[in-house]
Amino acid sequence: MSGTGSGSSGSSSLVGRPSFDQLRSARARREVYPGEWLPEPLVDDDRLRNAETADSLSLAFLHLLEQLSPVERAVFLLHEVFDYRHDEVGRIAGRSPEASRQVLARARRHMDEGRRRFDVSREERDEIAARFVAAWEDGDVEALVDLLAPDAAVHGDGGGKAPAIPVPLVGAEWVAKALIGWGRQARGRGIMHRRAW
Q1: Is 170 in a helix, a strand, or coil?
Q2: Nearest to 34 by CA among 178, 169, 179, 163
Q3: Which of 29, 98, 102, 141 is the most buried (most CB within 10 A)?
């Protein structure tokens, strides 16, 4: 959304309404898609650098934002990330300042319901990810199971271009075996992988 501060309410509201319409349209497309939509990985170097400088926009945070309605998401980002006042947010969202406060409170409740139980350092996260990839590449089911929670689940998103998992696959051993099997199939077809944020 364009504009910063109070001098931009006209242009912000012109951008705000089409943005809400676009988000609603995206939600409708997701409802028709048979799989689950997950946030896109960042594979472009410039985008990766930007993501590293804004580490608070983690995959988990983006996934939480996806749980909000378009208006909740817009109000939350405008107020919490871009530091707009409620009268400015209300003008952009087509609501009163008091309604903007209520939408923000509702968005925070939804965010809290899906919040992670704990945080880990980047170093610990990277070390666990490296062990995970090594076990997966080696086809070591036992090592992979050791790294997974007993109720681990795989959610798949084919983006409408590749087969998706219509129902999450649950259970550490099932997940480990499936990931290793899919990895072998991919390598057999000459498909390579690389890490992405």
Answers
A1: strand
A2: 163
A3: 141
Whether 104 contacts 115, CB under 8 Å:
no
Q: Is 44 exposed, middle or buried (0-12, 13-18, 19+ CB in 10 A)?
A: exposed
- Give the residue with greater pLDDT, 147 vs 22: 147
Contact 12/18 with Cβ under 8 angstroms?
Answer: no
Asked if pLDDT for residue 172 goes beyond 60, the answer is yes
Residue 39 is encoded by which pair of tokens? Answer: 């946030």
Q: Is the pTM of this model over 0.70?
A: no
Which of 174, 64, 175, 44 is CA-nearest to residue 110? 64
Closest CA to 186 of 165, 162, 153: 162
- φ, ψ at 90 (rounded to 5°): -60, -40
128: number of CA atoms within 13 Å, CB side? 11
Q: How far is CA 2 from CA 12, 19, 62, 82, in A?
A: 6, 11, 20, 11
Output the CA–CA distances (angstroms, integers) from residue 146 to 37, 149, 150, in the order listed: 28, 8, 9
Residue with structure tokens 């099932």?
174
Total count of residues recorded for the chain: 197
